[in-house]
Amino acid sequence: MADTITVNGTAYPMPDDPRVSLLDFLRQHIGLTGTKKGCDHGQCGACTVIVNGIRINSCLTLAAMHDGDSVTTIEGLGTPEEPSALQRAFLEHDGFQCGYCTPGQICSATAMLEELAADWPSDASESLEGRIAISGEEIRERMSGNLCRCGAYANIVAAIEEVAGGGRS
Amino acid sequence: MTVHFKQDEPDNSNRLDGMKQGVLGKPLPRIEGLAKVTGTAPYAAEYHIDDCAEGVLVTSTITRGEVTSVDRASVLSMPGVIAVVDDEKLCTRAAQGTANEAPMQGPGQVCYWGQPIALVVAETFEQARDAAKHLKVEYREENGAALDPNAVEPEEQEDETVHQGDLAHAMAKAAHSVDVTYTTKGHASAAMEPHAAIAQWDGDKLTVHASLQMLNYNITELADALDMEEENIRLISRFVGGGFGSKLGISEEVVAAALAAKQIGRPVRVVQSRQQVFQTVMRRSETTQRLRLAADSDGKLTGFGHEALVSNLPGESFAEPVLQSSHFLYGGENRELMLKVARIHRMTAGSVRAPGEAVGMPALEGAMDVLAEKVGIDPVELRLRNIPEQDPEEDLPFSSHKLADCLKQGAEAFGWDNGPRKPRQRREGEWWIGTGMASAARVHNIAEAKARVTLKADGTALVETDMTDIGTGTYTILAQIAGEMLGLDPEQVLVELGDTRHPRGPGSGGSWGAASIGSAVYVACKVIREELAKKVGISEEELELSEGKTATGESLTDLLEGNDLAREGHYEPGDIEDDYTASGFGAFFAEVRVNHYTGETRVERMLGAFGFGRVLNAKTARSQCIGGITWSIGVALTEALEFDPRDGHLVNCDLAEYHVPVHRDVPDLEVVLVEERDGAASPIQAKGIGELGMCGGAAAIANAIYNACGARLYDYPMTPDRVLAAMPD
Question: CB–CB of A17 and B124 under 8 A?
Answer without folding.
Answer: yes
